[in-house]
Design a protein that fits this description.
Layout: H1 2-21, E1 51-53, H2 56-62, E2 65-68, E3 70-72, E4 77-86, E5 91-95, E6 100-105, E7 112-113, E8 118-124, H3 128-157, H4 164-185, H5 187-190, E9 192-196, E10 201-203, E11 213-214, E12 219-224, E13 229-235, E14 248-253, E15 260-272, E16 279-285, H6 287-292, E17 298-304, E18 313-317, E19 322-324, E20 327-335, E21 338-349, E22 353-359, E23 366-370, H7 372-381
Antiparallel strand pairs: 1-21, 2-23, 3-18, 4-13, 4-17, 5-12, 6-8, 6-11, 7-10, 8-9, 10-12, 13-16, 14-15, 14-17, 15-16, 18-22, 19-20, 20-21, 21-22
Length: 382
């Protein structure tokens, strides 16, 4: 009997030892790691499908910036396409007044010059016929001068018996002969012409050299004043009603060109171009714009306040928009270290703002305006 109790006690101790020493049972997994249990537990380390987690340190490193989505009318802008040109006094073209040869060149490319400053000296050249004619005229003038001097001297010797009118006529003839001879003798010196700058500014690129032959009407120099620029834009019939009387204008560089500057309306032409049925709009840039743009450059002209309805629309910075799989999205800063993805339908846009026609963005949502590319990269790789 005692032996039986000892056997049962030993078997119980062995079972207890096996329960303590053996590891707890693991869940049963079928092929490919699938859990065939009643309820599969989510993986706590799985990435969020509609958000990016970015610590504060990384936000500072990437320079992430946000802006509030808000309702505004500033998006109501009419975009015109224009060309920068020189305003009055902003460009001076110097042409040669006579065919000749450059004997002096005082201008350099990029040189700052004043109005009426001498840029070059041109010596007039004559062909053979002109030279023969000039020589003949000079010889005739000299012959006439000698004859007038002899006639006047003869009359002076007989002044007491000569008629007064003959003496006066001889004196007048001598004066005229001297004047003609002086003009023709000095014509060689007056053949040299000084070329001066019509305005103050900077000498543009030219390819002249001393001794070069130039023809009458050729452009020798172009002097530019970068502080006097204007913009010429075309306004088509369908946009006329969008142009208010008190509109403000902003000139912007095309895509890839940085900078913008305000412009002042000079004139809105009342004549219509018969080719494209557009009216010409002339704007003048201030000094800040003159440092950003150059004559001949194509630009965009933003007409602020365009449109008569004044209806407010939800707008976000244009830089906040990006795309995922071809769909436009913005990143909304929903928590200190969380950025939610929101799909949107963008509408009209300009260089600063874009209208949101639809989407999950509300007023005062903080959208990412700087660092969108970095957030998109992190999302695609998480």
């Amino acid at each position: 009997m005692k032996t039986k109790h000892k056997l049962l006690a030993a078997m119980g101790a062995l079972a207890l030892g096996m329960v303590v020493l053996l590891p707890p049972p693991a869940p049963l997994w079928a092929h490919d790691g699938e859990d065939h249990g009643a309820t599969a537990q989510p993986n706590a380390g799985a990435a969020m499908t509609d958000a990016v987690l970015l610590p504060k340190e990384s936000q500072f490193l990437f320079g992430v910036r946000t802006a509030l989505a808000n309702y505004s009318t500033t998006y109501n802008r009419l975009t015109l396409y224009g060309t920068v040109s020189a305003a009055n006094g902003g460009e001076g073209r110097v042409v040669v007044p006579q065919t000749g040869r450059i004997v002096r060149l005082d201008a350099r490319v990029g040189q700052a010059v004043r109005a009426s400053q001498v840029l070059a000296v041109v010596d007039q050249t004559l062909d053979a016929t002109q030279q023969i004619g000039l020589a003949t005229e000079r010889a005739n003038a000299q012959a006439e001068l000698r004859a007038a001097q002899q006639d006047y001297a003869r009359l002076q010797t007989i002044a007491d018996i000569a008629a007064r009118k003959d003496v006066v006529a001889a004196e007048l003839r001598l004066r005229q002969a001297r004047q003609n001879a002086t003009i023709l003798n000095g014509q060689a010196r007056t053949r040299r012409v000084s070329i001066t700058s019509p305005i103050s500014g900077t000498v543009d690129v030219f390819t002249l050299a001393v001794g070069q032959q130039v023809n009458q009407g050729d452009e020798l120099f172009r002097v530019l004043n970068p502080g006097k620029l204007r913009v010429e834009a075309q306004v088509f019939a369908q946009d006329l009603e969008k142009l208010p009387a008190n509109a403000q204008f902003m000139v912007e560089g095309l895509q890839g060109q940085q900078g913008s500057a305000p412009a002042r309306l000079v004139v809105f032409s009342n004549t219509v171009n018969p080719v494209n049925q557009a009216r010409q709009l002339i704007l003048e840039l201030d000094n800040a714009g003159s440092n950003l743009f150059r004559a001949g450059q194509a630009v965009n002209v933003q007409v602020m306040g365009a449109g008569s309805s004044g209806k407010k629309e939800l707008v976000v910075p244009t830089s906040a928009l990006t795309d995922l799989n071809g769909k436009p999205v913005v990143f909304v800063h929903s928590a200190p270290e969380t950025f939610k993805i929101r799909y949107v339908q963008p509408g009209s846009a300009n260089g600063q703002q874009t209208v949101l026609l639809a989407g999950e963005v509300n007023e005062n949502d903080r959208v990412v305006s700087v660092g969108t590319y970095q957030l998109k990269s992190i999302y695609l790789n998480q």
